[in-house]
Specification:
The complex is a heterodimer. Chain A has 7 helices and 16 strands. Chain A is of the alpha/beta class. The longest helix of chain A is centred in the middle third of the chain and has 13 residues. The termini of chain B are far apart. The longest helix of chain B is centred in the first third of the chain and has 18 residues. Classes of the chains: A alpha/beta, B mainly alpha. Chains A and B meet through helix 7 of A and helix 2 and helix 3 of B. The complex binds flavin-adenine dinucleotide (FAD), protoporphyrin IX containing FE and FE2/S2 (inorganic) cluster (FES).
Chain lengths: 315, 121
Amino acid sequence: MLKFEDRSVELRPGETVLEALERAGIDAPSSCRSGNCQTCLHRAVEGVPPPESQVGLTQGQKALGFFLPCVCLPASPLTITRPDDVGARRDAVIRAIEPLAPDVIRLRVDADDFAYRPGQFLELVADGDLRRHYSLASHPEDDPFLEMHIRLHENGRMSRRLGEFKPGDRLHVAGPSGTCFYEGVHEDQRLLLIGAGTGLAPLYGVLRDALKRGHLGPIRLYHGARSRDGLYLDEELKALSRTWAHVDYRPCLLDPNAPAGGDVAATALHAEQDVKDSAIFLCGGENLVKRLKRDFFMRGVSMKNIRSDAFTPSG
Amino acid sequence: MSNLYERLGGENAVNAAVELFYRKVLADGRIARFFDGVDMDQQIAKQKSFLTMAFGGPNNYTGADMRNAHKRLVAKGLNDSHVDAVIENLNYTLRDLGVPEKEVKEVAAIANSVRDDVLNR
Ligand SMILES: Cc1cc2nc3c(=O)[nH]c(=O)nc-3n(C[C@H](O)[C@H](O)[C@H](O)COP(=O)(O)OP(=O)(O)OC[C@H]3O[C@@H](n4cnc5c(N)ncnc54)[C@H](O)[C@@H]3O)c2cc1C
Ligand code: HEM
Ligand code: FES
């Protein structure tokens, strides 16, 4: 039994999921048709795809049910969606909205049955059609709300709208998405979390999740900001690192006079020479994430040990 | 005699080679620009496809697929010298992994055999 979204798809004996989708006239991309290129990636939202259809995917992807239809001969019923399908929108009510820094707010919303992993992101929907992605800093087992840290851009459409919202106002959320969360990490592995600005939101979620799951290896968190105000969780993070001997918090203020640029990327790249076996999480602006990902990979870190979310502007 | 892909070690050989190969390509000023812009995780998956094919492993690529996959790059100036550079990096990667010279040559020959399709001519 195979379903694509809410539609039944006939699966003939010996046929792959990709072949069945194509025969049913569903637009499904493919290229190598042998389980390597990942062009055909889909996600099982019900049922468990066979392990041979998940070879080469990250632990995070596997945990979320991603699989490769071109090499998938299902042994049990599957309901599948496109990889970027965020599912139905759900109602959300603002519980709290308050400043963390002059241009950063903390938004807490209540939404029923929203399952997620800390560090994933959701789609926030205002006024029916204004949609933006925001990462989750909350923890589903500790927090009864979804928490986001949002930088307000002067002329940003969502930014302006958020400036007007107050507790009790209604929004929608969809998702979650993303594979930048604590999965496939060894408990003794060194964790290296690097972010700038509100890139701290998912890292804070990951950090709390790692501690909750009993992570034992050293954890180092770099947070970059342009000004002291921008180190918006400074107190909480200092307190965390006092409580947990293996947590090392490194606030990084932008220093334009430093020889290598003085931003958090330069600081971390300089300090982190021996990273080969670390599990690395990178979040924030596109340039920061791209640069760190590339440089750490070139230093010998395997791509499967680098998880990242780039806060690419929409549109 | 087992086939080339099996002699190299199959999927494990591809996995061992893919990141080494990708690092060499990104460090090679002659060709790095063709691999920029595309997300690195996606690029790794494409390189796995490339290596599986060059190692003589199971794949379903046709000449037309190879033309399509590289059309965008040909428009950016892809030519024989770049194919040579890719094959050179492939050779270095295999030697790093201790693959015997005979197999290195066989792999290079497979890669070379799709040159005209890759270059869309
Ligand atoms: C996976 C993902 C996760 C994200 N998580 C977060 C998060 O946790 N917190 C958060 O604050 N944002 C996050 N973002 C960014 C967010 O989705 C929006 O892009 C951002 O809030 C701007 O939306 P806006 O409607 O206010 O501005 P828009 O109306 O979309 O843009 C207005 C103007 O602002 C500029 N602009 C927009 N974003 C940036 C930027 N990052 N840097 C510089 N200029 C910019 C644009 O160039 C444009 O001119 C995330 C993005 C992605 C893709
Ligand atoms: C030597 C013979 C070559 C072979 C056999 C080969 C094979 C392949 C294969 C199988 C793919 C994956 C296609 C897919 O499924 O999408 C691919 C993609 C790619 N190849 Fe090649 N390739 C060759 C030469 C080159 C050269 C010379 C370059 C550039 C210098 C190059 C750059 C790329 C890039 C950038 C992609 C990714 C394209 C994309 O994602 O849009 N290849 N190649
Ligand atoms: S088409 Fe390449 S992995 Fe499925």
